[in-house]
Structures are given as structure tokens and as C-alpha cells.
Amino acid sequence: MSIWIIFIILLIIICITGIVTGYYFSLIIARPICRSYEETYYCTKGREPKVIETYNKLKKEKVSIDSVYGYKLNGIFFPNRKVDKVVILSHGVTSNLWNMLKYGFAYIPKGFSILAYDHRYHGLSEGKSVSYGYYEKYDLKACVDWLRNRYGNNIKIGLHGESMGSAIIIEYLGLYDDVEFCVDTCGYTDFREEAKFILRQDFNIKLDIIQNYIIIFSSIINKIKYGWSFKQVSPIKSIKNTKTPLLLIHGREDTVVPFDMCEKIFNAKKYGIKDKYEVKKAKHTTTLDSDEKSYIDHLYRFLESVGI
Question: What is the distance between the alpha carbons of residues 31 and 34, in angstroms, rounded to a whole number?
């Protein structure tokens, strides 16, 4: 058997293996198993009863917002006495709006109204897949426009995200400069880097060359099936030229989105107000729970620094 035949056979094996593993990983990424709306509600009720108590006391209305992609976004709007400033809450992957209310209710003493909504493919919203910010940033724009159409162009709007939700709002800032501030809690820098981390943590794939091999095929398949490639979600690139004030909050013990991603985004932002708050003993999505008073104090100081 000639060396060329052996080479061709090896190439075919590499391609077939790449297609199979890439398809599997792409499916895990784009169509993850999400927690149900009811499950998240009862989990919140059990772990954070104060959130449910506050929810029951507040005036609220269910809203349905049209995505530019033709599906409906489910949301809940909590109007304050005077609706002149609103924070939009952006949740993480497999979650829904219930996980974000604990952040939103911290804004009430500052006179904010709150818009919490489910991203595409999550909660009660429609949509057939998740894109980690690629399509979701345009859904977020629909939410911003919904508020301005309803309450006027002078309304002040802030964005508060967690994990994937943070990546979404940073991706949004890369396109639109029409909000007053942004709070990024444990967000990632670039989806390719986060995909590598997932392969290391969840699949015990340590070698960089194998990680890159899987990501290349997964990204190509993802582009064909869902319309976006992994390199098209890169918050660290989106943040470079934005002037919108940014507060980054990250747990030092985060094993899902490493803390150094927070530092990289902070350093990448060259213009406008920026601040960073490190919660030393916090893991992923536990920064508020780990030290609620310090978290809220730092948030309030940031809001004062941007004049809101």
C-alpha cells in the first residue's frame, strides 16, 4: 500500500471523526437541556424566598415582545412609580428570567423599573436554538425598542447580565451605543475560549490540538445548521470601542468562566467609565449570594459614578 493511499485513508478517518464529534458537540452547544420555567420558579422559592416575597408584592405585567426573527420573547415588566429608568435583565444558558430577579430587585430602591425576559429557546420564549449572543443581541435590541416605544426616547436604560447573559449585553454594546450602563456578572471573553473550557471541564479533553480539532468541525457544522460560527461570538472584540459605562463582577473561584476572562474584558475596554469588583470566595453565578451587601454597595457606587 502506497504512502498516498495511507494518507488519504487517514485523512478520511480524521474528517469522518471530526464530523461526528463536531455534530455532537454542536448539538450540545446549540440545543442544550434547559431548566423548565416551573422548576426554576420553585427552586427560587426554596432557595431565595425573599425574591418570591418581593415578586408577589410588586406591580407587574406579563409582556410579549416580537423578535426580528419572527418568534415571541416572554417577559415580565415591573413598573416603578415613575418609569424614567429601567434595567433589563439578561440570564445565562439553560436558565430563564427567574434567576435574574434577585439582581433586578436590588435596583428598586434606586427608582428603577425592571424588564426581565427569557432568551430565545429558554423559559417561555420561542426559538429553536441558542446562539450565545449572536442572535440574542438583536432580541435585546427589540426589548430596548419596546421600552422606548412605550415610554419615550428619554428613558434611561441599563443592562444587567449573568454568564451568557453578560456576553449577550457586551455583544449588544458592540453594535449599539444607546444605553446608559452595563453590568457584566461572570461573562466570558470569546465563545471559542469558553468552548475549550467546556471541553476541558465537562469532557476531560486536555490537549489543545484536540480541542481545536473539535471546535473547528463544530463551528463549521454550527454555521451550516444554525447560521453562526463560534468566532462570531466574541465579547472581548465587541467591548473594545464602546464608551458605555461597564461594571464587571466576577468570582475568583469561578470554574465555569475563569476569572481571568473578567480581567481580559476589563483591559480590552479602552473608552468610557469602567470598574471591576472581585468576589474572592464566589463561584460561577454566586457573586451576589456570596456577599450580597458588598455586591449591592459596589453596584450603587457604580450607578452614582455614571450619574444614575
Answer: 9
Helices (H) and strands (E) in the chain, counts: 12, 8
- Reported confidence tier of residue 1, pLDDT bands at 50, 70, 90: low
DSSP tag of 276:
E
C-alpha span between 47 and 30 (Å, rounded): 29
List b or e across 185-209, with b for residues whose CB sees 16 or more CB atoms inside 10 angstroms.
bbbbbbbbbbbbbbbeeeeebeeee
Residue type for position 248: L
Give the C-alpha separation, 189 to 167, whole Å: 8
Q: Give the CB-side neighbour count of residue 193, counting CA atoms within 13 A.
A: 19
Query: What is the set of domains in the chain, with CATH numbers?
Result: 1-30+191-230 (no CATH), 42-190+233-305 (3.40.50.1820)
Q: What are phi and psi of 90, to 5 degrees?
A: -125, 110
* Among 292, 202, 210, CA closest to 256: 202
What is the tens place of the pLDDT at every residue in 193-222?
A: 989 988 998 899 999 999 999 999 999 999
> Span 79-108, mean pLDDT?
96
CA 129/CA 107 separation, integer angstroms: 31
Which one-letter DSSP state was computed for residue 110?
G
Which cell numbers hold the place of 150?
412605550
pLDDT digits 0-9 by tens, 3-50 = 877 777 787 888 888 899 999 999 999 999 999 999 999 999 999 999
Indicate the pTM of the whole model: 0.94
Q: Could you tell me the sign of the dihedral formed by the alpha carbons of 24, 25, 27, 32, in that order?
A: positive
For the chain, the first-to-last Cα distance in angstroms comes to 74
Alpha carbons within 13 angstroms on the beta-carbon side of residue 142 total: 22
Decide if 220 contacts 229 (C-beta within 8 A). yes
